[in-house]
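Good morning C.,

I know you're traveling, so I'll keep this short. The sequence:
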Amino acid sequence: MSEDLKEKKPRLTSKQQRFVAAHAQGMSAKDAVVVAGYDVANDNSASALGSMMLSQPKIQNALSEAITKQFPNVPNVAAETLVNVLINPEGRDGDKLKAIELLSKICGWQAPSKHASLNVTLRDKFKLPEE
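The tokens, ready to paste straight into the viewer:
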């Protein structure tokens, strides 16, 4: 297979493109489905279709690309805002924990999916005693 074919991004349909544009501008997935022109019977159908679309990698990639183009400094601004939450001496502990979680995601770190693997990782890294 030629390199040109390997590197091509999956194409979005015109409805998918309208969905991405609407959602990137701040509409909920349900509202973006309706604005994009999908034929849905009711709000529940629109919500279900919106959720399904947001789970598709090509939609996720297109949304990420659209948001990055529209707001190129969002990751930096978000990180600065979260750091300010962390260093605020009057901040609530719950807010600080959420800030740590979100900063971790911005930096590309994802928590292990299993509780047991997290315990093993922490035990090894910080030389914690066995349970």
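Safe travels,
E.
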